[in-house]
Amino acid sequence: MQIDALAPIIKPLIDEDAIMPFRSLIMPAAFLLVFGACSTALAHPHVWVSVQSELVMDGQKVKEINHHWTFDEAFSAFASQGLDENDDGKLTREELQPLAQVNVESLAEFDYFSDLYEKGMPHTNGTVFGEPYNYWLTLEGDKLVLHFTLPVVGEVDTSKEAVLDVYDPTFFVDFSFADKDPAKLVNAPANCQAHVERPKGLDDDVASQLAAIPADQREIPSDLMQFTVAMANQVFLKCN
Fold first, then answer.
1. pLDDT tens for residues 8-47?
2. 80-114 pLDDT, tens per residue?
């Protein structure tokens, strides 16, 4: 399931002038080539993403979220093949922009793997966000980085503590906060403070059950999804 959201980064294998989300493929050749025969061990996750997030404030209101997602080397190496249209040995923002657009548009189906809500209240499942803008891809070293902004259109009470979650509940994609600058506030008043909490991790039994899922199976059993919430990267924001 989650492969649809990330596959648009990959250059189409048939028509070089087309960009498509590979929805018709059960397991895109990209991942089979990258991960080879290690399908069982790598059944979940298939892609690793390092997350940096900025919560942009307008007074005590969260105005928007700036996401910066860095993909793992193996995925980036395959995804960046054939994208250098002028063969100058460099991938420019312009060459990557059509891929960034389709990528971000496809992420809407998965609520951008993001959730902003008031602590203790039911999760919004992404409905608090509007359509993303200011999006682009860069190749930094040997890793692709997706940048995009999510406008916040719903109201979240920061005086009672707001929470931003970033994770994939099906654990097809392993999101984790970056070691450096995982999250920060922008234009925040002095009375607003934020801190991050990294994923608590999976216990050995759940991890082994996930690893046993065939590599071409996109979804995980519903009884396991209740445990993958432990993989949520969280930012807690409170304005006193």
1. 444 333 333 333 332 222 233 333 333 333 333 344 677 8
2. 776 665 667 677 788 888 778 878 888 888 889 99
3-class DSSP string for 69-88: EEECHHHHHHHCCCCCCCCC
pTM for this model (two decimals): 0.77
**Contact yes or no for 16/142 (Cβ under 8 A):** no
Query: Quick one: pLDDT at residue 15?
Result: 36
